[in-house]
Amino acid sequence: MGTTHVKVRVTNPADARKYWEGMFLVDTGATDTLVPGPYLEGIGLKPEATRVYTLADGSEISVGVTVAMLELMDDKIGATVIFGDPDTEPLLGVTALESAGIEVDPVNQRLKKLPSVRL
Length: 119
Hints:
Structural class: mainly beta
Distance between the termini: 29 Å
Shape: globular
Strand content: over 45%
Largest sheet: 7 strands, mixed
Helix content: 10-25%
Number of domains: 1
Radius of gyration: 14 Å
CATH superfamily: Acid Proteases
């Protein structure tokens, strides 16, 4: 299996004129979406809370989180975003995928829009 990337626009919910767009690695092992902190700060977002996450190796980290609008595959959703280190690759987590009604086809390395969102 390879990797899947998708273009995502991250928008400040308080001011839709402020946004950042980039390629995100689709990570079905991640709950929330991670964006390098400087991009979030650049669109006027700041951490609203701190959350502890468990990494794949079992270690824990404490990071700032906020809410942003994510736009992908012709859909907009509100999502929790993590303030990542400046050099981290943006990750699109499973919560955002499920909220938008998108599933991953790992064999063909594509995303597929479902006909409806699971309730």
